[in-house]
Each structure stands twice: as C-alpha cells, then as structure tokens.
Design goal:
This protein is mostly helical and 401 residues long. It has 16 helices and no strands. The chain has 2 domains: 187 residues, Up-down Bundle (Growth Hormone, Chain: A); 181 residues, Growth Hormone, Chain: A (Up-down Bundle).
Length: 401
C-alpha cells in the first residue's frame, strides 16, 4: 500500500486554516459590526471605519507574510494569525469604546493577513509542482466552507449567548485548532522530511531553459504586472458586488428569495472551486482566468438589464461559479510562472496591490448607485472592467518567461 504524500496533509491543514480565517475573519467582521451596532447603539457608519482598517492592515501585511514564510516557514505566521485572531475576538466581545472596536478590527486584519490566500498558497508552494493547481484549489475550499457556516454560527451564538461569550468561544476554537496545526503539522518544505515535491522518488530535474526568478526580476516582468492589473480590476468589482448583492436583489425580490439567492451563490462558488481542482493543472491557467472573467462580464450585463426574478437568480448562480475561482487563480498563475523559491515574496507584493484595489469595490458600487439612482451603471462598468481584465491576462501569456 502506497503511503500518502505528506503534502496532502499540508493541504488539509491549509484548508482548516482557511476555513477558520474566513469564518471568524472575513465573513465574521460584518456580523461583529451588526452586533456592536445593536448592543452599543453606535452608528454603522462609524463602526465601518473598523472594517476599512481590517482590509487596509491585511493588505499592508501581505508582502511581509509571504516573505516570512519563504524565509523561515509557516509556523510563526500561523501562530501569529491564531493569537491575533483570538485577541481581536476577545476584544470585540468586550470593547468599551468605539476606538477600542477600531483597534480590535485592525488586529483582526493582522490575523486575516496570516490566515488567508497569500499565506495558504505560499505554504503549499514548495510541496507541489505537477499538482500545485489542484492542491491550491482544494485548500481554498476552506474559504467557501467558512463563508457558508461562519456567519450563521456566529449569528446563532450571538442571538442565544450574546456577543461576548460567542466571541470568546470563537477565540478558544481558533487557538485550539490553529496552534497545534502550526506546531505539529505544518512544515517548511518536503526536504525537511526527506521528501520531494508531489511525493516524487527523486528531485525534479531543472530544464536549462527554465528561468531562475528573483524578486527584483519578477516585479520588472510584464507577466507579473498583467496578473496584478487584471485581478485588481476583477476583484474590485467582484467583492464590491458581493457586498451590495443583498441591497441589489432586495429591489425586486422578497427577503426569503434574497436569502435563498445569496445562499445559492455561495454554493455555486464552492462548486466552481471543486471543478477547478479537477483540471487546474491540465489547462493554461491564463486561458481559464480569461474565460472566467468573460463569464463574469456576461453575468454582470445580465444582472444590469434583467427584470425577471428567475433570470436574476440564474445570473447570480453563474456569477457564483466565477467567484469560486477568481481568488485562487492569481496565486496559481504566479506560482506556475515564477516558481516556488520566491513565490511568497512575489505574490505577497502582488496581493498587496490587489487587496488595496479590492477595498475600493464597495465604495465604487455605493457612489455609482447614489450618482445614478440605480445599480445598472456600476454593473455595466463592472462588466467592462472584466472584459479589459480578460484581455490583459491573455496578453501576459509566456511573457513571464
């Protein structure tokens, strides 16, 4: 019986890290904001400053997270992520003032930087060559699962126990799960265990035509900047729409239909990532990305002009399929074209810019809706951005070499 390659244990650990990081971090911050508004009576607009800090702090740390994992391995980064998550959760459950809430959200941003896509894909980078796309796709399923279960679990706990006890329990779960994974499971590379990438019997032979990338060389390459520009456009309009999806659908749907449509969108995102895991290593990832961006543009256009509820639901489902793949395709392309040696540093740099652009998404939809009294204009502009992104990502084919 063939022994399972230890790299797949790393994948499972990364899935768990991603799940908790998303459940209590990315998808939890909106729940905490709502709970603080309800219990403290603070205006949502004032509390939302904390959410901005959450995203800005996370974006600012992406390069440092990737570089640290490249140099010393994942243990300290995941440990810091667990400790900062627990600290932020306990703080949010007991905040005495609005300023303290902002500080807690900022600390949560540290944890999100340590437990999200840059950290996950950098941890996996040394372990796989042939199956790196599949490994990253499987680990990223944790983000979808965390998004599906995180908010309902937190809302249930807050409704029955209150914010303080629920946040404390989430903090304990974070420490109990993440710290043992950091200490006992996560390793820096297969060589640490006397293994080779993908569980191969010998070290991969490097082709004489294969380039050796440095960080300085990578950031000067057209290939990397096509990834940065394309995914900045796409992530901005994608995350922006997701934050406004409920408001948009509520214009024509009942609350029950809105809830069901949002849930189906999340399920479609999970389905999309499962599909990507099957063929991510067998097809040109830039072609996949361009196809996903074009499909997203079609759904934005449909959402902008559709009147019938069934068409809005159908378009939301197709949009969900694209959501499941967009986030993970950027690191997959970067890893494939620039290798494992400097992946964390290179993608950390790229992710910082992409996340800063992403943070503009909610405001883009909000301001455009206010200016035009409709979501039609921002949705059509979003479709245009996706088409531009598809052209940009295709223009970078082979240029990284």
């Amino acid at each position: 019986m063939t022994k399972m390659f230890y790299g797949w244990r790393i994948v499972a650990a990364c899935l768990a890290v991603n799940l908790l990081g998303n459940a209590f971090g990315l998808f939890g911050v909106g729940v905490y904001m709502h709970a603080l508004a309800e219990t403290k009576g603070w205006p949502v607009a004032d509390i939302s400053v904390g959410l901005t800090l959450f995203f800005v702090v996370s974006a600012a740390l992406q390069w440092l997270v990737g570089r640290t994992i490249d140099r010393v391995g994942p243990k300290p980064v995941i440990a810091v992520g667990a400790l900062s998550m627990a600290t932020a959760l306990v703080g949010l459950g007991r905040v005495p003032s609005l300023g303290a809430a902002w500080l807690a959200f900022a600390v949560m941003g540290i944890s999100w930087a340590c437990l999200s896509v840059t950290a996950i894909t950098t941890i996996l980078a040394p372990w796989f060559e042939k199956h790196q796309g599949r490994a990253a796709s499987i680990a990223s399923l944790g983000a979808n699962i965390g998004g599906i279960v995180g908010a309902p679990v937190l809302l249930f706990g807050i409704a029955h126990l209150g914010l303080g006890p629920t946040a404390l329990m989430a903090a304990i779960v974070s420490l109990v799960v993440l710290l043992p994974l950091a200490v006992f499971v996560l390793k820096r590379s297969p060589q640490e265990l006397g293994l080779f990438p993908d569980g191969a019997a010998q070290a991969p032979v490097r082709s004489v035509d294969e380039p050796y990338w440095t960080f300085a060389g990578a950031i000067r390459s057209v290939g990397l900047w096509t990834v940065v520009i394309a995914f900045s456009f796409v992530m901005m309009v994608q995350i922006g729409f997701l934050t406004h999806q409920v408001s948009f659908l509520s214009l024509t749907m009942s609350p029950l239909m809105v809830s069901l449509t949002v849930a189906i969108t999340a399920a479609a995102a999970l389905t999309g990532r499962l599909a990507l895991a099957q063929f991510a290593d067998r097809i040109d990832q830039r072609v996949i990305a361009a196809s996903v961006f074009t499909l997203a543009a079609t759904t934005f256009t449909t959402l902008a002009v559709a009147k019938a509820a069934w068409l809005l639901v159908a378009a939301s489902i197709v949009f969900g399929l694209t959501v499941g793949n967009t986030t993970i395709l950027a690191p997959i392309i970067t890893r494939r074209e620039f290798g494992a040696a400097v992946f964390g540093t290179v993608f950390g740099f790229a992710s910082t810019i992409i996340q800063l652009a992403t943070a503009l998404g909610p405001s883009f939809y909000g301001f455009m809706r206010e200016a035009t009294a409709s979501y039609q204009a921002p949705l059509l502009i979003a479709a245009g951005f996706d088409v531009i992104a598809a052209c940009v990502i295709l223009s970078g084919r082979r240029r990284a070499r």
